[in-house]
Amino acid sequence: MTNKSIKSSIRDKRKARKSTRPITSNDELYSSLCIDKIDGPEAEQTDEIKTKYVKKKRLRPLVGSVYDYETMAKTYSKKNVAQQLGNYRQAMEFLAHITLSKNDNNDKIVDRLKDLIYSYPNVDMSSFVNKHHAILYSWIIQNIVRVYGEKYLGTIYVLGGGIGVLPAMLLDTNLRLENVRSLDINGTCKFLADEMMANELLDDWHFKASTQDMFKADYIMNKFSTDLHDGSLSAEFSEVPGVVINTNISHMENISDWYRMIPDGRRMIIVGETGDVVRPYASSKQFNQSFPMSFEQYTGVITADDKKQFFMKIGLK
């Protein structure tokens, strides 16, 4: 067969495959689309469907309770799929807005939250794991690292430490610290914080949560015992708080009494805020003047998504 006959055969086959129907334009295709009316039982089911608007719930504080490891472990580990999914959603929001410290081992917070939510699905963590705290804690960590760098900080006390999220982030930095203590009068907070930081807890109490009242702590040389898992008290021990962090200034009464308890020269990080709180601050200037320090190392303000502002001051009392 010659080349000429081969080419002719190919042309004939192509011609035969061509459709005689006109090509429909995209505009005609879109305009021709329609949804037929549904008749029969399906129509009745469709009519029953109503639009439902779901508002995001307000953050609820954990119910205050006396620390009881055995009871809490049993109660909080009960199956609660709806609450567990809500906690995972809150964790995703938190992680989406967090800024991790620059080091090679700074993503432990991901596994810590995952393991905590998996092990204890029957407790609402939304008051401590949310967008506001992600923004606030990231800001705190960034400035502590910037101000103190390679300086030795000793033991850090986080007052009103909640379930231990900020302490966890502190331990994931390259800061030269000895230990981290999280003080919160809520027994549930202590339980969750110790569980989330179980590895550091077992490391000679590199981290430890306590229900010690911040008004009863001694910021010169703190002596205290803490409840253990078996219900007994630990032996009393003493330590010097090298750094005191208080992010709950605006939620406290008698704040001046507490501030007078801090010895001169102690490193401090304090945070106040605007909004519907016990002690709101109208401006950064008002906040700074309320807490005089012998040496100010940082003052600043940050705005959250709903125009809520946080004020921070770092320095020596």
Protein model, in words:
- This protein has 317 residues and is of the alpha/beta class.
- The protein has a domain at 140-316: Vaccinia Virus protein VP39 (Rossmann fold), CATH 3.40.50.150.
- The chain is 38% helix and 18% strand.
- It has twelve helices and nine strands.
- The protein has helices at residues 3-17, 26-32, 41-48, 69-76, 81-97, 108-119, 131-148, 165-171, 187-196, 198-202, 255-261, 284-290, and strands spanning 152-159, 176-183, 207-210, 222-224, 237-239, 241-246, 267-273, 295-303, 309-316.
- The protein has a seven-stranded mixed beta sheet, with helices on both faces. A two-stranded antiparallel ribbon has the order 4-5.
- The relative contact order is 0.10.
- Mean pLDDT is 84; it is low at 19-59.
